[in-house]
Amino acid sequence: MPASFLPRLISKPFQDPGLYIPFSFIKRAIIFDLGDISHLSPKDILKASHVFISHTHMDHFIGFDHLLRLVLGRTKKLCLYGPEGFIQNLEGKLSGYSWDLVENYENMLILEAAEIHQTHLLVQTYICRNRFQPTSPPLKKPFTGLILDEPGFSVSTIILDHSIPCLGFSMKERFQVNIKKTALQDIGLTPGPWLNDLKQALFDNKPADSIFKIPAGQASPIAQCFKLGELSSRIAKITPGQKIGYITDVRYTPENLKKIIPFVQGADHLFIEAAFSDAHADIASTKNHLTARQAGEICGKAGAKRFTIFHFSPRYSETEALLYQEAEDAYQKAFSNETPSRSTGVIKAIE
Ligand SMILES: [Zn+2]
Ligand SMILES: [Zn+2]
Hints:
By secondary structure, the protein is α/β, with parallel strands linked by helices.
């Protein structure tokens, strides 16, 4: 049974960073960072409901225009999150275009931007028909680390140091729903789209005694009704949900490590930048990036089950394998010090 979220890097590791996380059984996706997103199909981009921007260096935010171009004229609410200064950066982009015709649009496009500070969030809403002009000052809300909390999953963030504030993200699925095929056969049901509806009902936390209806033709010739709790206990196995981490553009400092390692602890899949080789640790330090060794060490210390490195400097275009090897060696060393069990280790971004 596939996981509920299947994260993948948007581009090759020498290109702009970004992570695309589609949901397995609904048309929806989450995006971490908006670099060059032209490698994603318009269909995939349009699935995005929430976009989390680590920081607004150009290689992490230039794709916003591409995204906006696609959603313009559609009925959609798109939620965006970014660090201190994000609202100003976003408004700068929005004010770069003329919007004299948008009040005629039939569809309602709404952008909601949340700017994350140490103790609070500033939330501003932009309506396309109002030419993206805010009608009131941003709302101030308390910030606790949790920035998106839904029945099926949550997204948390930490503020890291990259000379400017840079956000790290973690996405945690509450649980996974695995369907037992033999149990399905035992009660005479065949797989179909209704299984997705069942999983969604469980993620939505619907009451156990609520009625779950399987439409005619999906599992049997006639429609069938079950109590949700009874059906799920017979055919579904609930297992712990996966945790995905995304860390990019950070200094290798004790302060950052103290925040990152507990934050991504036990991640099933950690995506982490490795811009330079450790032979160029001095350049990495000047440019406020990690080396492959540092990235591997962080993954090992955090006990990540698998990890993917990305955001490589072009200087390694002929020696990419060195970065993977360096990260893997550091990971194995740090991981074995932290826990006796082995793990999957480094995964190349693009095979
Ligand atoms: Zn940066
Ligand atoms: Zn960058």
